[in-house]
Amino acid sequence: MIEASDMSIASLVLHAGPVVKAVMLVLLFASLFSWYVIITRYRVLSRARKAGQAFEEKFWSGGDLASLYNQVRKKSNPDSGTEAIFRAGFQEFVRLSKTSRDSDAVMDGAQRAMRVALQREEARLSRYLPFLASVGSTSPYIGLFGTVWGIMHSFRALANVTQATLSVVAPGIAEALVATAIGLFAAIPAVMAYNRYASLSDSLVGNCEMFAEEFSAVLHRQAHSREE
């Protein structure tokens, strides 16, 4: 145990027991990786939102769909789900239109391609969010485990002390409580980021679904105009 006069956070961490130190180390890695996920997901979701808005402005500006497709297909990885849905749907629509005069078959193929693109976009936007949810839900309990273990160890050590005063008990309990503090430090940002990003991801996926329906209507009119 450390002396009651030296109760700095660094001393509490350095003088903690091996189990408590292991718990702190696990929580530290979880916190660092969750912050990495928070930063990278912020960039991905922000870029997807801005790129989606910019693409929909181009799409509804009344330009030629073929020329817009030529611009989009040059990108190896579209920045937004609407771009990916447009590229997949229009590519399949053009391919099937060359081999079939059945508008229903052409539309079925284009819609299947758009559904696949939508599922891929949904998976891309929600990537690593389950990890944030896991960190947010489990970190307090992991920290609590370290605290309980540390307090048990402190009380066992007090069995050899003739007089258990507060100055004797406080350092050991403080060491153990640091684990709970680190657990909360890891959990709170993860929970806040998960709630925010999950909501934003659902909103972006909803916009993609709406765009897919609207684009299907545009392709449906073109498919039937070919038959006339």
Based on secondary structure, the structural category is: mainly alpha
Span between N and C termini?
A: 88 Å
Biggest pleated-sheet summary: none
Number of helical segments?
7
Q: Provide the β-strand percentage band.
A: under 5%
Please estimate the helix content: over 70%
Question: Got a strand count?
Answer: 0
Mean pLDDT: 84
Low-confidence runs: 1-5
Please name the defining characteristics of this protein.
disordered N terminus, mainly alpha
Structure, explained:
It is a single chain. Helix 4 runs parallel beside helix 7. The longest helix has 62 residues. The protein is mainly alpha-helical. It is built from seven helices and no strands. The chain is rod-shaped and about 95 Å long.
Write the layout of secondary structure elements.
Layout: H1 9-14, H2 18-59, H3 65-72, H4 81-99, H5 103-125, H6 129-157, H7 166-227
What's this entry about, in short?
With 228 residues, the chain is mainly alpha-helical. The chain contains 7 helices and no strands.
